[in-house]
Amino acid sequence: MDQVIQVKRALRDYADAERAAFMPQFFQAFEGGYGEGDRFLGVRVPNVRKVAKDHPLPIDQLRALMCSSFHEERLFAILVLCGRYKKAKNLAQQHALIAFYRQHIKWVNNWDLVDCSAPHLIGPYIWQQQDMNFLGALARSDSMWQQRMAMVSCFYFIRQNDSAITLDLAARFRHHSHPLMHKAVGWMLRELAKRNQPEVEAFLQQHLEALPRELLRYAIERFNEPLRQAYLSGSILASG
């Protein structure tokens, strides 16, 4: 049996009609939503991961799934790509995987697809190759999803104890118009604060008056409660 057909059948074995009916609301796949037009089988993420683990298709078999109208099939393809990148034995294999991802980047078009690939595929590649042109192209893109890729790829840089890229992109995107970018910036600042809270506090105090509320809430989520309240009330800026 064709491997792609096997994957499609395996995913549908886990499909849940009630969940499929709920997912368009969760991912704003309704008219005018950020995920408008997306379709869902109703498969839970752990089950998509299981199918990806059981069916690690070669890259030349992933195209139909990466371009699928079904969200879970695209997620499957992305998870396989990330798994293959992690196990890549040489630079040529890494280049091929990244090239495939970039060729199909328009299909990485919802926050979960971005978030499961950017820290595990884009971040490692940019860091290892020091390909700042790629990072810059994502950050300058008109696509909010590609901008989020740039921001969330910082998860990998943070783990390498590099804070500069995260803070630069946080400054670039701090006035972004979309709440999904506010969350992404705040999330990365929160992760950075786990390793270097003073650096994050310096950033917050520099920009506090203009930061979107949701971005701030995400960034200070792990601060101790008195400090968190001081940021939320703005008293830390007044006393500073």
What are the salient characteristics of this protein?
240 residues; mainly alpha; 15 helices; 0% strand; globular
Please provide a written account of the structure.
- By secondary structure, the chain is mainly alpha-helical.
- Helices cover 70% and strands 0% of the residues.
- The chain has helices at residues 3-13, 17-26, 45-54, 63-66, 71-87, 91-103, 111-129, 132-140, 144-152, 154-159, 164-173, 179-207, 213-219, 225-233, 235-239.
- Helix 5 (71-87) packs parallel to helix 7, helix 8 packs across helix 9 and helix 11 (164-173) crosses helix 12.
- The longest helix has 29 residues, at 179-207.
- The termini are far apart.
Q: Note the overall shape.
A: globular
Span of the ends, CA to CA: 67 Å
How many E-type strands?
0
The helix content, as a percent range, equals over 70%
Short description:
It is built from 15 helices and no strands. The protein is mainly α and 240 residues long.
Set out the fold topology.
Blueprint: H1 3-13, H2 17-26, H3 45-54, H4 63-66, H5 71-87, H6 91-103, H7 111-129, H8 132-140, H9 144-152, H10 154-159, H11 164-173, H12 179-207, H13 213-219, H14 225-233, H15 235-239
Helix pairs in contact: 3-5, 5-6, 5-7, 7-9, 8-9, 9-12, 11-12, 12-13
